[in-house]
């Protein structure tokens, strides 16, 4: 079964053909980064306009690269939530229209579940496991029992992990997009340059929740208070110290979940899963099997959408054309 995936939830216009939920035949990602860089953040109005311009050529390219005519695909999957409304509507409406005109089944998929599925495109992972979903908009630690069966254990109560990277990078004018820039700068910095406070671990139902506002405030407004005066105040040192704290906040909750649930396989997904320090620290835990998607599938792409779409469509699960976009992750 060859599924065409379409992804337009944020600032990448993407289309991909994946066979049987596993084999990527084509994977086209048109990034809008240069158009948002001037504002050091995604401008929703620009994003949806670019999606409207690019969606047809991007889908065409994905089909051409797969040497397929539109009628030769077996189904269409598009991201329906969460994301920027104006952006989501472009890909979702395009997907529904193509489905209707070709008479092929259509499925709307959840972007965060698709991020989780990305790891399955490159590795054999069996359920159950713990999911670590870290993107620009969401931070979720969850138990995963199937491709669409997740139990959320913890989320960020304020900024998402990627958002914290992006805001700190924007404030210090380090470059755009912030996460990848901080990761790169941190390679040449020393994490001991600043000792940022770690949010305390909660008990009870919030024990896996993450908070980034304290770290963000410390890094932006109270940097003098936490800086180690024996280190020069360079971008590299700042990036390394911030990244170290940001990653350790995540891992403290994740490791707690590993201990409590006894699940020793962790599957990561989302843009922040590309972070080299996160990957390294997780790899050091030899008692945990950690599965990261390849770097090319951490950020937004449509292969993960097509792959997850296959899981539904191969079971005969389809969406109705009344399915609409939503900014919210649940619903
Ligand atoms: O999954 P994604 O591409 O889009 C959303 O669904 O949000 O994630 C984008 C986020 C951005 O906040 C970006 O700064 C962050 O992922 N990111 C990183 C790295 N690469 C991208 N954060 C930390 N380290 C990285 N190497
Ligand atoms: Zn994403």
Low-pLDDT stretches are: none
In order across it, which strands form the biggest sheet? 3-2-1-4-5
Total individual domains: 2
Number of beta strands: 10
**What is the CATH class designation of the largest domain?**
Alpha Beta
Describe the structure.
It is found in: Cytoplasm. Keywords: Acyltransferase, Cytoplasm, Iron, Metal-binding, Transferase, tRNA processing. Pfam families: TsaD (PF00814). Its cofactor is Fe(2+). One of its GO terms (biological process) is tRNA threonylcarbamoyladenosine modification. The protein is an alpha/beta fold and 331 residues long. It has two domains: 2-116 and 298-313, ATPase, nucleotide binding domain (Nucleotidyltransferase, domain 5, 2-Layer Sandwich), CATH 3.30.420.40; 126-292, Nucleotidyltransferase, domain 5 (2-Layer Sandwich), CATH 3.30.420. Helix content is 39%, strand content 19%. The chain has eleven helices and ten strands. It has helices at residues 33-37, 44-65, 85-102, 111-117, 161-171, 178-186, 213-220, 223-226, 235-261, 276-283, 303-313; strands spanning 2-7, 12-19, 23-31, 75-81, 106-110, 129-134, 139-146, 149-155, 265-269, 289-291. The strands form two sheets. The protein has a five-stranded mixed sheet with strand order 3-2-1-4-5, sandwiched between helices. Helix 5 (161-171) runs parallel beside helix 7 and helix 5 (161-171) runs antiparallel to helix 9. The radius of gyration is 20 Å and the shape is globular. The chain binds 5'-O-[(R)-(carboxyoxy)(hydroxy)phosphoryl]adenosine (KG4) and zinc ion. 5'-O-[(R)-(carboxyoxy)(hydroxy)phosphoryl]adenosine binds next to helix 5 and helix 6. The site of 5'-O-[(R)-(carboxyoxy)(hydroxy)phosphoryl]adenosine (KG4) has 20 residues, from helix 5 and helix 6.
